Each structure stands twice: as structure tokens, then as C-alpha cells.
Amino acid sequence: MAMTTRGPSEELDIALFSMVLCFSRAIDFLHPKISEHHLRVAYVASCLAEELDLSQNEIDDALIAGALHDVAAVSSVMHFDLFDDALTRAHTSHKQMPANLHQHGQEGYLLLREFSPFANAAAAIRFHHVNWNFGYGAEFEGEPVPLISHILRLADRISVMPEDGHHVLAQVQGIRMAIAAESGRCFMPKVAAAFDGMSEKESFWLDLTSPHKEEIVRCRFGNSKLSLDLDGLYQLARVFGKIIDYRSPFTAAHSSGVAATSEELATRLGMSPHQTRLIGVAGNLHDIGKLAVPTEILDKPGPLTPAEMFIIRQHPYYTHRILSTVPGLETVNTWASQHHERLDGKGYPFRSRELTLGSRIVAVADVFTAITENRPYRSGMARAQCLAVLDKLVADGAIDGDVVAALRGDFEQIHHIRHQSQQTHAASPA
Ligand SMILES: [Fe+2]
Ligand SMILES: [Fe+2]
Ligand SMILES: [Fe+2]
After folding, report:
1. pLDDT of 123-133, one tens digit each?
2. From ligand 2's centre to the CA of 33, what distance in Å?
């Protein structure tokens, strides 16, 4: 089972919704234009679901769907122009929508449905840009469109309508009129009517624009006692790792390679099965902070400028900040966010010298995976060259010689497992 009800005897106690919010915050780092966008959509979608008298489970699905709805719009292929489209074309009829506008919904669905507690949210995300189109939007390409998709469609639009520089309450009437004018065309009439009912309340708008929105959203999640056991956390980290990798063809499946290598090294270095699984979670999440690095820098074909280098070197710091919001994830956070630290204290961003075995393993697994995996611009290194690079790093005081010795001791097998894992979890959503 992926989830349990939390109790004092549980070995691991990670609230599912904390993980959702943590990842939602990470994707909101992507672009200033979408700052807090996912949090806002989660808030509005949950209010609409409540106004429509949906069950608490459905409200929870709306919260998860809102918090993750544009998760697949993070790849370099899907450029941020998409957001411009999504944000400005509320008045565009269905037929005039750009063909690829639905692609990130479909891809988000394929990525997220792999984690069974997200099944309903994924199904809603699939069609979150479908217009009601006077009833034709009850289906899309022969598939029924869930009510929560139409809730997201409206929540997505409302979330971007309040403009900075004017008090939100001064904008309410204008927004309500604009939404009412699109009822039937863009928005499902009963969802638009629900909005009309709830948008009279000043509190709705003050919550929507509140700096404490995360707490407000967290309180709206009914099943707050739903927690992940080790298997559930592991499965969820795999899905999130795939989304992190999915962003760039340069790092396709990198996280799953780091996770698999870390697990193999941990086993050989005597870590318990529990810790071995946890290090797989750390491997999958170690580059979550890269979501805060623009794709133009991640995918830049030429050498980076000093300013770009500073930005890319921020990513383990962001990994730390993002994961530190999840109570119970402290060990995973340490192992994940220290992967660019060095034993001599010259690593970044913490300049730590006190690195636990888990951190040392993930650091070696990261270098090993980076230099042995194939990338679009070069092939991965073979054994001799790879070990020469790692030995040099040991001699320089960067990484742990015992961990490298464990790798050398079973190189072919670990290399094979790393490769297999990356093949299996290749960063395509299908
Ligand atoms: Fe979207
Ligand atoms: Fe959106
Ligand atoms: Fe990294």
C-alpha cells in the first residue's frame, strides 16, 4: 500500500499533502510569471469544488490537481510561451486554441497517473484546458471530461486575473463580469455559477492573494492524516524524479540513474534495507532544485558565463529549501542536498566537511551517473576512463575513496543496473 493512516508506530511519517505542496512550490519556482500559480489554482479549485457540494475526497483531488496541473509544462520543449497562451487566451474559442495547448495536460496525466493516489487528479489534469464550448466540452477526443477538469479550467483563469498594483477588492466586479461573460463558452455554466456565488465574499479574494496561502491551502486538504509509508514515498519520489528529468533532454533519466546507483552502493556498504530505500528517494529528488534553473541555462550548448554558473550552482541549495518543508524528510534532504559537497569542505552550497555515508554515496553516484550516461552531445565514459576520473576526485579530497572502492569492486553490475534503471524510467511520460 502506498498510504497508511499515520500512527505513532510508523517508521516513516510523511504527510502525502506535504509532498504535493513541496513539489508544487518547486514548479512555481520555474518562472516569475507563474509564481504561486499552482498554489492559487489549488486554492480556487478547492473552493469551487466545495461550492459545488463535492465530497471531501473530490475536494482533495481538486487540491492535488490544482497544485500539480502544469507539471508537464516544465520541459524545454514546452516553452513558457505556453503560459502566455494559457494565461491570455481565456477569450479564445476552442477551435482557435493552439494545438499543443492540450499536450502538457496529456503529458501531466501520463506522468502523474503512475502514482495511484493521484489517479483522479491526473485524469482531471489531462483536460484542464478544454473549453465547455456550449456542451461539446463534456467530451474531448472521444473521452469524457471530468468535472474537476472544468473546475481547473476556471480556477486556472481566475488565478491570473488579479493584477498587481491595484487592491484586489477593487478588481472583483470586473473579474466577475469577465467570467460571467464566458460562461457556456469557456467555462461550464454550473462551475461559473459556483464562482459567482462564492466570489461575493471578500474573504475568498483575500485568501487568494494572501501571503499565507500555503497554510490556507494545507488546511483545506481534508485527509491531512494520510501519510506515506516507505513504499509510497519511494513510488512518489520516482514519479517526481521522472518529472525533474523530463524537463531537459540533457539530463533525461539522470535522477533514476543516481537513485539506482546510490541504492546499489548503499547495499554494498552495509546500509539497512530501510536506509537503502530512503537513499533511492534521495537520489530521485537530489536535483529537484534544478526546477529553479531556467532551461536556457540547463540546455545551453556552449560554455556558461560566470553569472549562469552562479545560477546553476544554486540548485542544491534549492533542493534543500524545497525538501526542508516536508516534516520527516530530514535525512533524505541531507543526503539529497549535499551531493555537490566535498570532503575537503570546498563543495557547495554549504561547504560542509561532516558528510554522512548517505551524502558521500549520493555524491559519488551523481558523478558516476553523469559521466557514464549518454547525453545528446556525447557518449558516456567506459570503465577505465570513469574510474580514472573518480580516482582523481578521491585524490583531490572531493569524494570518498571507500565508496569508490565499493563501486570498483562490482563495477560492471552497478553500471548495468544504472543503465537498466535509466532505460526503464526514461523521461518520456508514456
Ligand atoms: Fe496548463
Ligand atoms: Fe496553469
Ligand atoms: Fe546536482
Report:
1. 999 999 999 99
2. 10
User: Over the Cα atoms of the chain, what is R_g?
Assistant: 23
User: pLDDT: is 156 or 2 the higher one?
Assistant: 156
Ligand 1 centroid to Cα of residue 153, in Å, is 8
Q: Report residues near ion ligand 2: CB below 5 Å.
A: 70, 156
Q: How far is the CA of 312 from the centre of ligand 3 (A)?
A: 9
The CA 365 to ligand 3 mean position distance, Å, reads 11
Nearest ligand to the C-alpha atom of residue 370: 3
Going edge to edge, which strands form the sheet with 226-228?
Answer: 3-5, 226-228, 14-15
Ligand lying closest to the C-alpha of residue 27? 2
* Cα 75 to ligand 3 centre (Å): 17
What distance in angstroms lies between residue 316's CA and the mean position of ligand 3's atoms? 6
- What pLDDT shows up at residue 292? 85
11/54 Cα distance (integer angstroms): 34
Q: Among residues 257, 340, 251, which one has the least CA distance to residue 291?
A: 251
C-alpha atoms less than 13 angstroms from C-alpha of 50 in its C-beta half-sphere: 14
Q: Which ligand is nearest to the CA of 36?
A: 2
Nearest to 72 by CA among 125, 18, 117, 16: 125
Closest CA relative to residue 400, chosen from 391, 389, 387 = 391
HSE-up (13 A, CA, CB side) for residue 287: 29
Taking 70 as the threshold, does the pLDDT of residue 82 lie above it? no
Q: What is the CA(309)–ligand 1 centre distance, in A?
A: 30
Q: List, in order of start, the domains of the chain with CATH numbers.
A: 7-226 (1.10.3210.10), 242-424 (1.10.3210.10)
Q: What is the pLDDT of residues 6-27, one digit of tens each?
A: 444 337 889 999 999 999 998 8
Sorted by sequence, the CB contacts under 8 Å of residue 121 that are 6+ apart come out as 61, 62, 64, 65, 68, 112, 148
- For residue 107, the ligand closest to its alpha carbon is 1
How far apart are the CA of 295 and the centre of ligand 3, in A? 15
Q: Which of 6, 82, 29 is nearest to 321 (CA)?
A: 29
> How far, in Å, from the CA of 94 to the mean position of ligand 1?
14
Could you tell me if 368 and 390 are in contact, meaning their C-beta atoms sit under 8 angstroms apart?
Answer: yes
Show the CA angle centred on residue 23, arms to residues 242 and 350, nearest 5°. 95
Burial class (CB in 10 A: 0-12, 13-18, 19+), 15: buried
